[in-house]
Amino acid sequence: MMRDTLCDYGAATLEHLRGRGCKLTDADVIEINALASEVADKGRFTEKLSRGRPVHCGGAWLWPLTLQASDWFDNTGCFMSDGRAALGYAMSHGEDEALPTVSKREVKKWLRGLRCTMSQLVVAMHEIMEQDDSPDLTRPNDEKKTGGGMSAGRLSAVMVARCGGTPEQWERRVSVDYLRTILETLSEQAAAEGGSTMDSQTLKAEDALDACVCRIEGRGENG
Length: 223
Hints:
The protein is mostly helical and 223 residues long. 57% of the residues lie in helices and 3% in strands. The chain folds into two domains: 8-48 and 151-219, no CATH class; 53-129, no CATH class.
């Protein structure tokens, strides 16, 4: 199916090729986008359920941490003077595109606007953490932080390849706990069945995209 716009997975693939010094033709861009869209369209997940159960507190809705929110808290929020407020902010703004650039000033402004006490906010955050393996309400370096060794961008690319969807969906609209569950389930299914963690249609689409990328890389910079 032809696409009028460039999908996220296609854009990431094109960026990879340009980073390797490949000279891309208009036909290359069209083909990469079509194949990447096919990969992203394969496999589905229930988006509403994957976000987890929200908790209302002081005029704000808190949600289980998304991959983007976990990444921001891990690298920025947990080092702020009030890590609890930063965690609450991350739970409330996991879908926001601008979250990676949020500063301590914005977190304080959000906290002042809540119609609840800090104790009530902490209780609400614990309700969220009961659903998820979110970080504890501790100071930096006191306990282990969220996430493993894989960045949000890399993990979202893995999820697109295995389950379809887009990087934006996996980073900003899905809870971290749901991601863990999906990855563990796919791995266990693959171990039991001796097969791939991707469904056959997604695997075919991914193979077609990989073949196209290899062909373009094989042409070299001037190909």
